Amino acid sequence: MGLPAFKFPEEPAAYVSADDYLRLETTAETRHEYANGRVWAMAGAEMTHNDINYNLNQLIGPKLRQRGCKANMSDLRVQTKNRSGYLYPDTVVVCGTPLLSDDVKPRSLTNPLLIVEVTSASTAERDHYEKFTLYRQIDSLRQYLMLSSEEVHAELYTLDDVGRWIYTETRDPAAVLDLSSISCQVPLAEVYHGLNGF
Fold first, then answer.
1. Sign of the Cα pseudo-torsion (17, 23, 27, 31, in order)
2. E strands of 88-125, at which residues?
3. Helices (DSSP H) in the chain: which residue ranges?
4. Does residue 2 register a pLDDT over 50?
5. Tens digits of per-residue pLDDT, 25-64?
6. Exposed (0-12), middle (13-18) or buried (19+): which is 194, by Cβ within 10 Å?
7. 3-state secondary structure of 136
8. Contacts by residues 119-127 (CB-CB < 8 Å, ≥ 24 positions apart)
9. How many CB atoms lie within 10 A of CB 112?
10. For residue 8, what are the CA distances in angstroms to 11, 29, 41, 111, 198?
11. Are 64 and 93 in contact (CB under 8 A)?
């Protein structure tokens, strides 16, 4: 028996259950993100966005291999607490054995250590507020990094030993990002290396 005559809503205001989202996402032609009953189609990214994400992954890749960790870019879905969110971060890092949920494929990662979003004018508000609200409910998450695709600008949230999210930000190309969750120091200039206008 085929899927019922239901499509993802055009506007994110219509409520969709997590089960319906997962079922429909298996046959959707484009990927969608899910947050508290609302669904958004994911738009394609500008080259600058992809270059920033690629540069970051080239920098952290060797360190991750040494620690038994792995980064996935864009295509790995993350499930947040109580199935309230299903999101596709630009980069997600997991160390040790990945824990995957759902019988619906592709399955969703539930134990990320570091999540990275490359923000733009159209995504920055969701990345800062709605997504971070969902991401920080993940027990394993230790850091959330946002990198602007509009300017040299990094914002980093780090979970401290008493459960507080500590915010640091910089626009200084000479700055070094302390990705303590993966024991890695990342020069911000290298993240933005080779990009026109930066």
1. positive
2. 91-95, 100-101, 108-109, 114-119
3. 18-25, 47-67, 124-125, 132-135, 188-191
4. no
5. 988 888 999 999 999 998 777 899 999 999 999 999 999 9
6. exposed
7. coil
8. 119/146, 119/147, 119/148, 119/149, 119/150, 120/46, 120/49, 120/148, 120/149, 120/150, 121/150, 122/43, 124/148
9. 28
10. 9, 11, 9, 27, 38
11. yes
Contact 93, 69 (CB under 8 A): yes
Task: Indicate if the alpha-carbon torsion angle 63, 65, 68, 72 is positive or negative.
Answer: positive
Q: How many CA atoms lie within 13 A of 169 on its CB side?
A: 7
Residue of 12, 8, 29 whose CA lies nearest to 20: 8
DSSP code for 43:
P
User: 110 is written with which tokens?
Assistant: 């539930």
What is the per-residue pLDDT across 169-194, written as a single tens digit (0 to 9) for each? 999 999 999 999 999 999 999 999 99
3-class DSSP state of 63: helix
Q: Could you say which DSSP state residue 55 is in? A: H
